[in-house]
Amino acid sequence: MLMDEWAVVGVIVVLFGLIAAIVTPLLKLNTSITQLTCAVSVLQKNIEGLTTKNSESHTKLWEHNSKQDSAITDHETRIQIIEKEKNDRGGCLNGYKETIF
Predict the structure, then answer these.
(1) Cβ distance 89 to 95 under 8 Å?
(2) Which residues contact 97 (CB under 8 A, 6 or more apart)?
(3) Other C-beta atoms within 10 Å of 88: how many?
(4) Burial class (CB in 10 A: 0-12, 13-18, 19+), 96
(5) Rounded CA gap, 16 and 10, in Å?
(6) Of 77, 94, 75, nearest in space to 85 by CA
(7) Cα 39 from chain centre
(8) Model-level pTM?
(9) What pLDDT, in 10s, does the model give residues 6-51?
(10) b/e string for 15-50 if b means 16 or more Cβ within 10 A?
(11) CA–CA distance, 59 with 26 (Å, rounded to integer)
(12) Alpha-carbon dihedral angle through residues 78, 83, 88, 94, given to the nearest 10 degrees
């Protein structure tokens, strides 16, 4: 009968070992998953912030581009007027003839 008691103790020890062998990796896995979830959450917030800043930057760039387009159009118009005046006066401005060297 003594052997049967030690057999029961042995089975209990083996069961505890088996449970420990299964639970320990599960706990480590759970910890890793939690840490990764937090990291992904932070990355999502960062990406959202970058997307917002990117949109704002593009808006500013397009506004600046529109201002430059207006300035270029204005300059082009002024150059065309000057060239027309030059051609109307015989190829020179302010009534002076061009000298060719």
Answers:
(1) yes
(2) 90, 91
(3) 8
(4) exposed
(5) 10
(6) 94
(7) 17
(8) 0.49
(9) 888 999 999 999 999 999 999 999 999 999 999 999 999 999 989 8
(10) eeeeeeeeeeeeeeeeeeeeeeeeeeeeeeeeeeee
(11) 49
(12) 80
**Using CA atoms, how far apart are residues 24 and 99, in angstroms rounded to an integer?**
97
Q: Determine the length of the chain.
A: 101
Residue 61 has pLDDT above 60, yes or no: yes
Give the span between the Cα atoms of 99 and 31, in whole angstroms. Answer: 87
Average predicted confidence (pLDDT) for the chain: 87
Per the CB < 8 A criterion, the answer to whether 93 and 82 are in contact is yes
Q: Which residue has the tokens 């057999």?
A: 7
Q: Which two tokens stand for residue 83?
A: 């060239």
Do 92 and 100 touch, CB atoms closer than 8 A? no
**Looking at residue 62, what DSSP letter applies?**
H
